[in-house]
């Protein structure tokens, strides 16, 4: 496709910024990336939850089971929930005290809340019906809610309940109190390889789980990866997650993390999550992304991604370089994660040698970093935002559009 035509296509996206416009980094300074949401009309774009996002260890994963069997069992649970979509299940905002903003996104805001009768803390994602409709995100929001209520995996956030009112959709999730990996990474500048391996292993397991459920995630980045009170990972934000049979075409994600096949408007599938996993490994170990450019023109970035040339800074170990090089292949027939052994090419790579995969799933491995938290409702690991009151309309808006929510 000619350059200008692709540019026309990209101009129709909306961009939301990464959390910190100016990361406190030395060289090279990382440009803020954004999440892209497709605006084209044809866009396709059980246990009780514990306080602070740490689930009680009710389900231990057996070290003796074939991992495939574990995944198959989890798929039965997932499908049961996915095929039994529940409409709003909570009473409403009156059951909670709304405390403070944890993060903001393109269509709403996430706030810390406390349930009045139990004093449990949760994170509440508040999405504006008007914005969802205006930006043609109804299908994405429906996917987000349905998937959030169906997934259950140690390294994924899921949904406690949801409700709606005249103006907003509300998704209640466990509050993951350790903050975003993004903030920790910017503070640390970069992670040592052991720390990157600890987080990378959990993210790889989470992607493998999602793909086994036939879901693609499409927005992997440190802003969407939270750290729980035990120092483990919890991936949040299923806004672009989607059940796919084969391929999909929507242009969405975060520019620095987009796979070449998305940029080139080829149909794509699960391979894009492994690509972004490669970008994440690089960013964790380097402190910036491999196709970083000073230019604010996204086309410059996209051309770099499609050319596929990147360099490693000094200090990268040989095994990690080998793994990243084998993931960041534009050629899908060579990309690790996308070959016939699937996630095993990554999990069995020499860089992950010695990883106790089931021990991680059972949270038996000690974490390299434990956030300093004074109690279950401590949100000090999150940025401070201007607090804005919700403006709830006196008449119910978009009744038909949100009838199934
Ligand atoms: N369960 C949670 N516990 C604690 N904080 C959370 C939780 N879920 C989300 N957040 C915070 O809120 C921020 C925004 O949430 P989320 O990414 O779901 O919104 P979004 O509108 O999809 O954002 P964007 O469009 O920028 O990707 C997260 O980056 C994180 O800082
Ligand atoms: Mg997000």
Automatic annotation (TrEMBL):
<keyword id="KW-0418">Kinase</keyword>
<dbReference type="InterPro" id="IPR044109">
    <property type="entry name" value="STKc_PKA"/>
</dbReference>
<keyword id="KW-0808">Transferase</keyword>
<dbReference type="GO" id="GO:0005829">
    <property type="term" value="C:cytosol"/>
</dbReference>
<dbReference type="GO" id="GO:0005524">
    <property type="term" value="F:ATP binding"/>
</dbReference>
<dbReference type="InterPro" id="IPR011009">
    <property type="entry name" value="Kinase-like_dom_sf"/>
</dbReference>
<dbReference type="Pfam" id="PF00069">
    <property type="entry name" value="Pkinase"/>
</dbReference>
<dbReference type="InterPro" id="IPR000961">
    <property type="entry name" value="AGC-kinase_C"/>
</dbReference>
<comment type="similarity">
    <text>Belongs to the protein kinase superfamily.</text>
</comment>
<protein>
    <submittedName>
        <fullName>Uncharacterized protein</fullName>
    </submittedName>
</protein>
<dbReference type="GO" id="GO:0005634">
    <property type="term" value="C:nucleus"/>
</dbReference>
<keyword id="KW-0067">ATP-binding</keyword>
<dbReference type="InterPro" id="IPR017441">
    <property type="entry name" value="Protein_kinase_ATP_BS"/>
</dbReference>
<keyword id="KW-0723">Serine/threonine-protein kinase</keyword>
<dbReference type="GO" id="GO:0004691">
    <property type="term" value="F:cAMP-dependent protein kinase activity"/>
</dbReference>
<keyword id="KW-0547">Nucleotide-binding</keyword>
<comment type="subunit">
    <text>Homodimer.</text>
</comment>
<dbReference type="GO" id="GO:0007476">
    <property type="term" value="P:imaginal disc-derived wing morphogenesis"/>
</dbReference>
<dbReference type="InterPro" id="IPR000719">
    <property type="entry name" value="Prot_kinase_dom"/>
</dbReference>
<dbReference type="GO" id="GO:0005952">
    <property type="term" value="C:cAMP-dependent protein kinase complex"/>
</dbReference>
<dbReference type="InterPro" id="IPR008271">
    <property type="entry name" value="Ser/Thr_kinase_AS"/>
</dbReference>
């Amino acid at each position: 496709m000619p350059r200008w035509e692709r540019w026309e296509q990209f101009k129709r996206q909306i961009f939301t910024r990464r959390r910190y416009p100016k990361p406190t980094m030395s060289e090279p300074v990382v440009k803020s990336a954004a999440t892209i949401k497709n605006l084209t009309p044809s866009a396709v774009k059980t246990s009780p939850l514990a306080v602070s996002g740490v689930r009680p260890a009710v389900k231990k994963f057996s070290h003796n089971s074939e991992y495939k069997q574990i995944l198959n069992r989890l798929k039965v649970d997932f499908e049961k929930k996915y095929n039994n979509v529940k409409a709003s299940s909570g009473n409403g905002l009156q059951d909670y005290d709304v405390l403070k903003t944890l993060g903001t996104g393109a269509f709403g805001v996430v706030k810390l809340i406390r349930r009045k009768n139990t004093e449990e803390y949760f994170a509440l994602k508040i999405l504006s019906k008007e914005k969802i409709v205006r930006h043609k995100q109804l299908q994405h929001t429906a996917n987000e809610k349905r998937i959030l209520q169906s997934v259950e995996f140690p390294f994924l956030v899921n949904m406690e309940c949801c409700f709606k009112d005249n103006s907003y959709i509300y998704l209640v999730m466990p509050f993951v109190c350790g903050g975003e990996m993004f903030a920790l990474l910017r503070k640390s500048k970069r992670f040592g390889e052991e720390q990157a391996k600890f987080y990378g292993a959990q993210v790889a397991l989470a992607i493998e789980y999602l793909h086994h459920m036939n879901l693609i995630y499409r927005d992997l980045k440190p802003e969407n990866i939270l750290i729980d009170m035990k120092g483990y990972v919890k991936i949040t934000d299923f806004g672009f997650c989607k059940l796919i049979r084969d391929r999909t075409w929507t242009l969405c994600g975060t520019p620095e993390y987009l796979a070449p096949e998305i940029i080139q408007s080829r149909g794509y599938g699960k391979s894009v999550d492994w690509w972004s996993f490669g970008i994440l490994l690089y960013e964790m170990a380097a402190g910036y992304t491999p196709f970083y450019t000073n230019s604010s023109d996204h086309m410059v970035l996209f051309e770099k991604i499609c050319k596929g040339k990147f360099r490693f800074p000094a200090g990268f170990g040989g095994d990690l370089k080998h793994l990243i090089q084998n993931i960041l292949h534009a050629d899908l027939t060579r990309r690790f994660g996308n070959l016939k052994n699937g996630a095993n090419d990554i999990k069995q790579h020499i860089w992950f040698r010695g990883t106790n995969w089931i021990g991680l799933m059972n949270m038996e491995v000690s974490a390299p970093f434990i956030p300093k938290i004074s109690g279950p409702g401590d949100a000090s690991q999150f940025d401070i935002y201007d607090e804005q009151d919700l403006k709830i309309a006196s008449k119910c808006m978009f009744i038909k559009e949100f009838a199934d929510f």
